[in-house]
Amino acid sequence: MTDRFNITDMPEALGARRFPTVTTWNRLEGRPRTVNFTRALRTEIRDALWMLTRQWQVGEFSGEDAGSPVFAKVHVATSKLTRFRAGAGPAVDFRDDIPLETQVEQLPWRTRIGRDKVSLDLRLMAGRRWLRHLAGIGNYGALFAGKYKFDLPDPTQASDAAVCADPEVWQGFAAVAGRAVDGISLYEYLKGGSGRHAYDGLAVLDIHKPALDDASRSFVSWVDRLISRPSAPDNPAWRASRFEYRFACSAPVASGEKVYVADEYHHGTLDWHSLDVDPSLPSLEPPDAGAGAADPRKSVTRTMIPVPLTYAGMPQPRWWGIEDRRTNFGEITPDTTDLAKLLFIEFGLVYSNDWFIIPLTLESGTLVSLRGLMVTTVFGERIWVTAAGSGQDEDWQRWSMYTHSTRGKGRNADTDLLLLPTVPKVQEGRPLEQVVLMRDEMANMVWAIEKTIPAPDGDGRSGASSARATRAYLERLVAAAGSVGPALIHENEAKIRYDIMSSVPENWIPLIPVRADGGGRAIELQRAALPRIIEGDTAPPVRVRPRTSLLRVGLDQSSPQPFFVPEEEVPRAGAIVSLGYQRTRWLDGSVFVWSGARKITGRGEGSSGLAFDRLVDVKPLRP
Q1: 81, 183, 504, 562: which one has the fewest Cβ atoms less than 10 Å from its Cβ?
Q2: Closest alpha carbon to 158 in 113, 120, 116, 119
Q3: Which three-class secondary structure state does DSSP give residue 417?
């Protein structure tokens, strides 16, 4: 019987594709005859012919007809970032004395939420700093503690619910009331206008007033350095309705000025990939700006020796080379569909020794344009190297790395390299505010859930726990007031009751869909408020307002303004917006601390359980 799997004519079978399971890819594998590999791993030397066969086996005799580079001559044109524009604000000079993250992300600190004082920790720290200045002047600590004081919270007033509802916060304010100096209140008074003195309204000796003025200037300078904040009341780069930043910067080039734009920066990792080149913006310079300024454009030509690219665990090209085992490629287990991991393995095993590095030291904030690169090989060949990413920016077959996208159609690819003045590491504190944006299709609305809220003592608290504590505190006040109200609704012995609307936790802020301005079918999400209804309370219900600055946009103004969020900012997956302090060190060792926001993808849709027009069962009254 003929074996149908025994292929007699392999080339003819492959050409006719008679056996689909047979391919041209085959692998020769050794068949071990013993379980002991000790002798095989010793790689014993037999004779010269054996060594030649070993070299042939690993491909050391396969020539590529290519010479290794020995010299590289590079000519680059450099420029410096000179202009910066935050959002729709005016263009200003680009600052090199602070990190770009600080310049873009810094938000104003919140010392009050409505009428309530917050940031008790900062207020006490500033107060202690001021008392340290007073130590060498006079015994005026009690006078300043009486004027810039902390009020004792009243547990019988609903207006102090933000402080009294949390026992820890209540104890903190009660402990410092009448005993400590509110340093932030003193700082805000001194910054409120010219001609103000710290001793205004206090009985101090005239001989001490000059020393107090010097201490005031030192104190204000210290607070200004403590936390970086925008000079304006708000940071123009922060787009509150979209929970992201927008900024632009520019550098002069040979053809005029190149403008880089970042419209949707929100992930907290600022680098070259956050910006795009916008040829439609010819310049960020005002008509009379830059007069008399030095031209930052320069040309640099250098001849250097290329250095092979190496990394830890890189496979050695020679037979007798031993790897350091810091990278174990054998433990990488990619799937057949994991193309990125497969490409990485192929680069690490096959093409890792084909890359060379040319060292070129440049300053941060520099725009580099490669004008020419000449490579000389060991055979004396001179090769002119062009950028791999040249061509049309929209060409999907174009290979590029570390290059910017160019806005607009039909544009040439931008091959310049931008070195932003950013820092490699930023320390992030615990979130003081965190808001989860979630779609609720059952209620046909969006919820902004305050997962973390800024407590008055300066720490972040759970929004759900604070909402429950605040409601319980207000319910105790209503019960203590002896209000009657509609507490006897069960006297008619009805089995069911009509419920107009169910309740949700007070840290769930509704965003309802409304028609956007300008007509059409565009939809925006407007911040709304649910009423706080407490059984037995005869006072009219009040609206539950958000307690995070991310959602209180427009509420603390003299004339409260509505707040809208574009519908596309809340996808089906939702979004999570966090706000907290960031800390880093700059080139000169100086420390920068600022408050910045981050936005990441959420965890999908959810349901609040909000329902209207329900019939609910009535629990029988206890005798």
Answers
A1: 562
A2: 116
A3: strand
Q: pLDDT tens digits for 394-443?
A: 787 777 778 888 888 878 888 889 999 999 999 999 999 999 999 988 88
Q: What is the dihedral of CA 89, 93, 94, 97, to 10 degrees?
A: -120
CB neighbourhood size of 321 (10 A): 9
Q: Which residues, at least 6 apart from 121, have a Cβ–Cβ distance to it below 8 Å? A: 457, 458, 459
Whole-angstrom distance, CA of residue 342 vs CA of residue 171: 59
User: Which pLDDT value is given to residue 485?
Assistant: 47
State the Cα–Cα distance between residues 51 and 46, nearest whole angstrom. Answer: 8
Angle between helices 209-226 and 183-190 (to 10 degrees): 100
What is the C-alpha separation between 269 and 273, in angstroms, rounded?
9
Q: In this model, does residue 486 exceed pLDDT 60?
A: no
Q: Which residues contact 198 (CB under 8 A, 6 or more apart)?
A: 130, 144, 186, 189, 190, 212, 213, 215, 216, 219
pLDDT at 101 over 60: yes
User: Beta strands of 94-155 (E only): which ranges?
Assistant: 112-113, 116-117
Report the percentage of the chain scoring pLDDT > 70. 90
Q: How far apart are CA 602 and CA 236, in angstroms?
A: 26
Q: What is the pLDDT of residue 489?
A: 46
Question: Residue 488's pLDDT is what?
Answer: 46
Inter-residue contact 323 to 311 (CB < 8 Å): no
Contact 94, 81 (CB under 8 A): yes
pLDDT > 60? residue 28? no
Q: How far apart are CA 99 and CA 270, in angstroms?
A: 10
Q: Are 341 and 334 in contact (CB under 8 A)?
A: yes
Q: Burial-class residue 90 by CB neighbours within 10 Å (0-12, 13-18, 19+).
A: exposed
How far is Cα 78 from Cα 416, in angstroms, rounded to an integer? 10
> What string of DSSP letters covers 565-593?
EEGGGS-TT-EEEEEEEEEEE-TTS-EEE
pLDDT score of 235: 92
Alpha carbons within 13 angstroms on the beta-carbon side of residue 351 total 7
Q: Look-up: residue for tokens 């580079």?
A: 69
The stretches of 353-491 forming alpha helices (DSSP H) are 463-481
pLDDT at 51 over 80: no
3-state helix, strand, coil in the chain (%, to 5): 20, 25, 55
Cβ(460)–Cβ(452) below 8 Å = yes
State the Cα–Cα distance between residues 285 and 291, nearest whole angstrom. 11
Between residues 467 and 343, the one the model is more confident about: 467
pLDDT tens digit string along 296-306?
Answer: 899 989 999 99
Q: Answer whether 570's CB lies under 8 Å from 446's CB.
A: yes
Q: With cut-offs at 50, 70 and 90, classify the pLDDT of residue 484.
A: very low
Write the CB contacts of 501 (distance below 8 Å, at least 6 apart in sequence).
Answer: 610, 611, 612
What is the Cα–Cα distance from 497 to 489, expressed in whole angstroms?
9
* The token pair that represents 67 in the structure block: 């010479």
Distances (CA, A) of 471 to 116, 449, 460, 468: 17, 17, 19, 5
Integer distance in angstroms from the first to the last C-alpha of the chain?
96
Do the beta carbons of residue 278 and residue 407 sit within 8 Å?
yes
Residue 219 has pLDDT above 90, yes or no: yes
Q: Smallest Cα–Cα separation from 184: which of 227, 143, 214, 152?
A: 227
pLDDT reported for residue 613:
78
Residue 433 bridge partners (DSSP): 579
